[in-house]
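Inverse folding, one chain.
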């Protein structure tokens, strides 16, 4: 039988200089687990986690997904002593697993020696090698001898805060559960006990803040379920039911519409403020020019400033006068204000500050298309990128509008209907695809 040989790729593992910190040891363990998981382990209890169990305590290992029992450490079966083919095959299988185990131990110890200063392992080395020492024992050696209590306590406090992470209703609840489990694994790696009761208290506190989960919280309090696994299943079910509840979906749609309108109003107000600032600047410029023209006219006519009508020369010539001289036109302050008022109005129309137009554009997420063919039908598509069909509303509807989410259902409504098989549904705007 050919001896098993394995060589790890350490390129994805960080090099640690000097005495390692708590965070660096935890990071190394995670990076090492990614490498070890890529190698299949044929021991049943390892499941899909490969050989990563080599670096774990039993408490850490039992928290991994799908794990229910520790992995039995392979032992050397010795030379074959049986006398049947079945016993011989079984011996070969046990021997192969043992040799794989020894290879993964050797590679993991090599990775530790490559990533940490060699002085850390002087007490454990024999002829420069970590012989007869498991990777877990080497890892524990670094924890016990080089991690300061204050550093460990700081990491524990941070991990405890991670257990209080907020639930984001805009993401599936599994993201929240994953964050909780990672914090729990981190604390277990720090040799801290985390009970189901503590996890559940934090989870309930964050679920209670969500108004859509008030009923779920009350049902949980009235029930008899007591484990974290039961709590996860309970709230997962309630959250999924909320996502398909027509009343809650309608409320969410209205809330989103109000939010969208508030953004339009905010944008309109911002544009109006910008126009007001520009208007003030223009008025100040006009007043300065009028004052300069008054001073120039006063100096020319030897009159007192302010005694003549406010005007500004346009500098344009209308041809020769009867006396042969050039005539110069003037613009009074009142005329200038009228001109600027017209300029402001044109600017508002050009930049789309009209709230009504903005509302129509926001409503259909693009150009406003009328139902110009009657009976709710139109000659031009309103949602050109949508392929949704609804047996009550027809075709050319929002991409998020489906038979199961429709809130305007008719007698002909069938949630199984599709564009190809309308099952008695309406044909409104279906001429776009026929």
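Residues assigned per position:
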């Amino acid at each position: 039988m050919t001896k098993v040989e394995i060589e790890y790729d350490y390129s994805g593992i960080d090099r640690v200089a000097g005495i390692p910190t708590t965070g660096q040891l935890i990071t190394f363990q995670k990076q090492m687990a990614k490498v070890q998981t890529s190698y299949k382990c044929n021991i049943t209890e390892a499941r899909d986690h490969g050989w990563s169990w080599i670096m774990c305590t039993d408490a850490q290992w039992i928290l991994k997904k799908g794990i229910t029992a520790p992995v039995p450490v392979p032992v050397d079966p010795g030379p074959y002593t049986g006398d049947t083919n079945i016993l011989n095959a079984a011996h070969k299988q046990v021997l192969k697993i043992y040799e794989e185990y020894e290879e993964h131990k050797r590679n993991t110890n090599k990775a530790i020696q490559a990533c940490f200063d060699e002085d850390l392992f002087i007490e454990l080395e024999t002829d420069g090698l970590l012989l007869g020492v498991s990777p877990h024992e080497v890892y524990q050696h670094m924890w016990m001898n080089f991690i300061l209590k204050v550093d460990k306590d700081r990491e524990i406090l941070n991990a405890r805060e991670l257990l209080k992470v907020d639930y984001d209703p805009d993401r599936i609840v599994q993201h929240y559960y994953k964050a909780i489990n990672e914090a729990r694994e981190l604390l277990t790696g720090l040799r801290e006990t985390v009970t189901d009761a503590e996890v559940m208290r934090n989870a309930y506190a964050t679920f209670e803040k969500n108004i859509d989960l008030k009923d779920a919280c009350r049902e949980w309090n009235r029930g008899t379920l007591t484990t974290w696994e039961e709590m996860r299943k309970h709230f997962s079910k309630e959250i999924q039911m909320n996502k398909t509840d027509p009343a809650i979906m309608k409320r969410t749609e209205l809330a989103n519409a109000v939010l969208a309108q508030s953004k339009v109003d905010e944008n309109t107000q911002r544009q109006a403020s910008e126009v007001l600032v520009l208007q003030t600047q223009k008025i100040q410029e006009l007043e300065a020019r009028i004052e300069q023209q008054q001073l120039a006219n006063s100096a020319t006519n030897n009159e007192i400033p302010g005694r003549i009508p406010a005007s500004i020369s346009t500098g344009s010539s209308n041809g020769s006068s009867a006396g042969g001289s050039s005539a110069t036109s003037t613009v009074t302050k009142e005329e200038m204000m009228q001109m600027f008022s017209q300029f402001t109005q044109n600017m508002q129309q050009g930049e789309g500050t009209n709230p009504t137009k903005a509302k129509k554009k926001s409503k259909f997420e693009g150009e406003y298309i009328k139902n110009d063919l009657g009976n709710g039908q139109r000659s031009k598509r309103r949602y050109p990128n949508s392929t949704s069909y609804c047996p009550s509303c027809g075709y050319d509807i929002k991409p998020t509008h489906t038979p199961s989410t429709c809130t305007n259902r008719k007698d002909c409504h069938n949630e199984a209907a599709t564009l190809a098989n309308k099952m008695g549904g309406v044909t409104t705007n279906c001429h776009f695809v026929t």
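The chain is about 50% helix and 5% strand. Residues 314-329, 355-362 have pLDDT under 50 and may be disordered.
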